[in-house]
Design brief:
The radius of gyration is 25 Å and the shape is flat. The chain contains 13 helices and two strands, in the order ααααααααααααββα. With 296 residues, it is an all-alpha fold. The protein has a domain of 169 residues: MetI-like (MetI-like fold). Strand 1 and strand 2 form a beta hairpin. It is found in: Cell membrane.
């Protein structure tokens, strides 16, 4: 019994050490980026920054926010498009998934096949641009919402989850006089909260990280600029180097930013909002991906 207990203790210790190792290699890249973004640029050029800044400073972030007076407006626009895009995308994807999950829907297979084909076949950038232009969405806020309204992948995930819901619930609701919309809103949606949270995270990340659509369709309208697009412009145009050092009366004067520091600060600015949201959706995210993948 003592030998058995000793073996389990050694196994537990080995497991704990392994999980700590996984934790370290997972967190290290992010901590390294954070440390470089908060470190003096001239000192960063010397190298050797790991998970803690040697010369702490907010100069890198000051440079980013000070170099673009539209950054706050772009931040608010990114929040707006993320919220609106996520809500509308969830409504459209969930309603379509519910329709396709109904066995009495006559065109179930045809619509499902057309939806799947969109995952493999694309019209290309030029036809897409011509379509958006003809719809009058150029320099329009809805250019952020309508093209990303539906995703075949998200619809399939939600539909797979709905297929696991007992049909007896719908049948009993119909006997009580509930119509299809009541069944959808009062029964199906509450039971699908895990997968809805999962898809919401997918949509929010996609909307938040998107900048190419701003570059193509909305860059002429300054009111529609987004955070990712503005940060991309800063990253693309910055030419500050740590070698810009001059001496005056024996004192070293240097720019407090360089391209590496700017890149790391931009990465933190773009990543932190999503990281703050993810912990609240994690439990739904895990269950939403697993429960909808297995049919009973």
């Amino acid at each position: 019994m003592k030998n058995k207990l000793k073996k389990w203790t050694l196994f537990d210790m080995a497991l704990v050490l392994f999980m700590l190792f996984v934790l370290v290699i997972t967190l290290y890249p992010f901590l390294n980026i954070l440390a470089i973004s908060l470190n003096n640029a001239v000192d960063t050029a010397k190298g050797g920054i790991h998970i803690w800044p040697r010369d702490f400073t907010f100069a890198n972030y000051t440079q980013i926010f000070g170099s673009n007076d539209r950054l706050l407006q772009a931040f608010l626009m990114s929040i707006l498009r993320t919220v609106v895009g996520t809500v509308t995308g969830l409504i459209a994807s969930t309603m379509l998934a519910y329709t396709l999950s109904r066995k009495d829907f006559v065109f179930n297979k045809i619509v499902g096949l057309m939806l799947i084909l969109t995952m493999f076949i694309s019209g290309g950038l030029i036809p897409e641009y011509m379509l958006i232009r003809n719809l009058g969405l150029i320099n329009n806020f809805w250019v952020y919402i309508l093209p990303m309204l539906l995703s075949a992948f998200n619809v399939i995930i939600i539909r797979s989850f709905m297929d696991n819901i007992p049909k007896a619930l719908e049948e009993s609701a119909k006997i009580d006089g509930a119509n299809d919309f009541t069944i959808f809103s009062k029964i199906i949606v509450p039971l699908c909260l895990p997968v809805i949270a999962t898809v919401a995270l997918f949509l929010a990340v996609g909307q938040w990280n998107s900048w190419f659509d701003t570059y193509l369709y909305a860059r002429a309208n300054e009111n529609l600029t987004t955070l990712q697009y503005e940060l991309m412009k800063i990253l693309d145009t910055t030419n500050i180097s740590a070698g810009d050092i001059t001496s005056q009366n024996g004192q070293v004067i240097a720019n407090q930013t360089n391209p590496q520091s700017i890149k790391m600060a931009i990465t933190i600015i773009a990543t932190v909002p999503i990281l703050l949201v993810y912990p609240f959706l994690q439990k739904y995210f895990v269950s939403g991906l697993t429960l909808g993948a297995v049919k009973s």
